[in-house]
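Hello support,

Our group uses your service weekly, and this is the first time we've seen a run hang past the timeout. The protein is Soluble ligand binding domain-containing protein. I'm not sure whether the cause is the sequence or the server load. Input pasted verbatim:
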Amino acid sequence: MNLKKQLIRFILKLNFIAIFGFCGISSVFAQNVDEISDEQIQQFMKQAQESGMTEEQLMAAAAAKGFGSADIAKFKERMMRLQADKKGVGNVNTTNTERKLNDTLNFQKLKSTTIKEDSSVIRREKYFGLNLFTNKKIVFEPNLRIPTPKNYILGTDDELNISITGFAVQNYKAKVSPEGTIQIDILSPIYVSGLTIEQARERIISRLKSRFAGLNSTGGGLYADVTLGNIRSISVTVIGEAVQPGTFTVPSLANVFNVLYACGGPSEIGSMRNIEVFRNGKLIRTLDVYDFLLRGDQKDNIILQDQDIIHIPYVGGQVSLLGEIRNPKIFEIKQGETLKDIFAFAGGFKELAYTKSISLERVTPTEKRIITIVQNEIASFIPQKGDIYTVGKVLNRLENVVTIKGAVYREGNYELEKGMTLKQLINIAEGLKEDAFKERVLLKRERENLEPEIINVNLSEILLGKKEDISLKLRDTVFIKSYKDLRERLTVSISGAVNKAGVYEFVDNMTVSDLIMIAGGFSDGASASKIEIARRIKGDTTGVSKEQSIKIETIDIDRNLIGKESKKLMLKPFDRIYVRTLPRYEEQKNVSIVGEVFYPGPYALRDKTEKISDLIYKAGGMKSEADLGSAKFIRGGKTIGVDLLKVLKDRNDANNLVLNSGDMLEIPRKKETITINGQVYNPTSVPFREGLKLKKYLDYAGGVTDSAFVKRTYVRYGNGRMDRTKSFLFIKSYPKIENGSEIFVPARKKYKWTPAERIAVSSAMVSIATILVTVLRTL
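Update from on-call engineer: The timeout came from a worker crash unrelated to the input. Re-ran successfully.
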């Protein structure tokens, strides 16, 4: 049994040594443990844990590998620190450089994990200032790159940089020992713990002068200076109503806000205005976060020392501000503060706030009651714990307004002055427009019960002094229409052979020539005769039948639009003018021919009777290489199957189509091949042979497959026409093969029964069988 245990222990040691080799740590132990990265140590710890070895076994195996006790101790210390970081504790004895790195890592971790984004964060938004400690975009970290504060107190693990310049150059780095001293090679230990950096500087330089004559003296040629290098870490404890109270390891330059941010700040029942800092059992400072939030004042944001205690007491009194204020929140109050101070915390009233009075809901020993606070009481009113103040909104109406709209130069809202009349309001609005309809002005007014009424006013008689002016009341609205507003918009329209046909505004004395000129004049093919005017029938019904609703006149005018026109040519509102085109005027219409002709290209149609044969004649006829059977006639983007052989034989053949504008005739070169596709064993193209039958071409493609539907074989000719196989009494008639044709053998469709069809057929068969059996039995 003992032999078995020894064997297991030996295997575990081998595993440990293998882990060291895998992580690449065995080589660096011999150099410097400080050079090993945290990632390598974490990987080693993970694999060691998976191997099942204890810490003692790991250390023993490292010693057996030849590592010294100092290296093992450092490595163990690094492992402990990383384990503590993983658990959120940074209170481990480490070197100053490691502590500085550890503190930075702790702050980064605390920022991302201290406050979870849950319902509690949303609740904290209701309290003024608490979001300062939940906003991850705000970085409250100690600044380690600032000059050392003059009142900085030195302590264990602080590092001092001592530099001597001039005739001699010397630099020393001295760390404060646990005994509070620093050691410089040429001097006995110097006690600096508890001194400020300035006091330590004077003491060190004083001791150096005993070794360097003339140091820091005028003309001495030697100068010394003492600065702070790496700083120590300190422990600060947060107690009371913090989100996460506890002890935090922070750099020695950390201040109160740094630690408050690390612990998540006060809780919902913690005070933000009476945060206390204790040092050596004594209260040394009270911090009011509102000073920083409202004025940026950090006078009480002191730098902390080791073992300081931050106490967050319970919140004192709280009041709520609701309604039309800039920052409605729950605010903490101090003794002696007034309601005016609380409104200042909230940023004051909004623009539409009703400030004449404020509603207060206050808790009494037995119930609640409502108090109305008037404006002049705000500055002296003392809030009480639990008060809820609500600021209302002003009414959405104007208290001294009259309105004028319509045919005045400046319509809008105006101040209602005492004794203001209608004429005065019109004068304030810069007067009436020239087209104002003064005989009937509408005055909209509210009755005492706020019901509206309309009052008709003859403004013309008031302006002439025939009637007394009207006094205006609050919220009166005056409507003055123009003549243009009271009639339909007068227009005339023109269409046909003009350059800018459309609808135009009617003006008095407008003639047909005037309208044509406004419409850009005649177009190229316009006819100046037989211009039609369609006019609405109103008062003049001479020569108009009862059934007629539109009067139409036909006129002739000068094509050059010169000379006066008779009254007959004067236009009336809503006339419609139609300008015709010359009878034989047409734009040129083009057709084109491409391919194997002597003169390909576009051609103009001379008349409406030209046909395909005429186009071929214009193009100089066909070349010897032309494939007439594959010629394509294209109209409107679509191919029309035309047999050119018949066209050239007989001009009157139906294939000789009359040409339209845009038609194109495409005559290709002879292909001299036949293409076979579809259900054949070898789809291919073969040379064309005059007189060869379709079945022979199928043989060239290896014959048809078993799934071929030979009865449906069809041929597509080069000109787009198609022909298919026909059969009568088991006699098949195959299409003729022409040069450039394509033969296609389709597949035979296999009909698949649907489930419903299979069920129906099965049921029918069963029924038929049942009937047959019944009949047989009967017989």
